Structure prediction request, 333 residues.
Amino acid sequence: MGKSNQSNYTNEFLQKLYRRMVLVREFELRAIEERRQGFIPGFIHSCVGEEATSVGACAALSNEDVITSTHRGHGHLLAKGGDPKYMMAELMARSTGYCLGRGGSLHLSDFDLGILGANGIVGGGIPSAVGAGLAFSMRKEPKVALAFFGDGASNEGSFHEAANLAGAWKLPVIFFCENNLYGEGTPLSKAAGISDISKRAEGYGFPGICIDGNNVIAVYEAVSEAKQRALSGNGSTLVEAKTYRFRGHYEGDPQVYRKPGEMEEWKKRDPIPTFRKALLDSGKFSEEEIQAVEASVQKELEEAVQFAKAAPMPQPEEALAGVYGDNHNGLVF
Ligand SMILES: Cc1ncc(C[n+]2csc(CCOP(=O)(O)OP(=O)(O)O)c2C)c(N)n1
Ligand SMILES: [Mg+2]
Prediction:
């Protein structure tokens, strides 16, 4: 049995991976539609096309492990077990959202699930993950911190400084680069002198590996190995997952920068239909079983949207809740 072969895994695990990928995709499409109808203020940076990276990576982590996310964070949250109800409510600026409706898409977090936060600052989450890794190391806790970031973020000083410390101190950190070939409208070839971000790991004294980010099993296996390395005291790993986003950098992006035919080529490798076909071809799942999973996602999302729309916006008198120390004014985060 070769590596990255789904026949090595239980049906329950495979179904979990498939359901989570469908949940991420459908959450994004629903959020885009709700925004179009005026229910979601602000920007949406969707991760449509990149579902295998978040889902594969988080499947290798436990609740105790932590992640830091990015501006394209919905998939990271859902993959780590984030609740679509509180996410949708936050996107709709409702008081029942993850941040009581004050943060929106870019500030989703759930500390109980080890989700230290989405982040509007490119590269901003990486040093936080290294800080968490340092805490685990000092307390001798068997946990890892995984930082999601993009190819664009890997050119930021924050990445290099954080990676340097993680290498020097052999911290239990997984640097997980989602290389979708672009930072906003700038192709990686115009922003860096290398095409494989994973090569940068050598400069910091830990391994870097490059994988197919559209293959959820390959992602899961790479992160599992990196986690094992970290928990054995051997320090960090840089995992570079090559992938592609199927929508604009943000909703409304005219996308004039894409190469002709590039999208069509990547769509042939769409992570969700590819995995769906593999599940059916394996004979482990019937078409009806797969459709039941897909229907259950739609039901969950419908409930999330209704939950969000039923809630009020935050009221002006609540503005200071959660700003100072323990003074939450009775509101619970
Ligand atoms: C420090 C900082 N610089 C610039 C920006 C504007 N900006 C937002 S997203 C983005 C591109 C990030 O590209 P990448 O890291 O590859 O992530 P992707 O959007 O491709 O997922 C930029 C430049 C920002 N938010 N923060
Ligand atoms: Mg990018």
User: Anything to note?
Assistant: The longest helix spans residues 11-36. The first strand starts at residue 66 and ends at 68. The beta strands are 66-68, 145-150, 173-179, 182-183, 186-187, 208-212, 237-242.
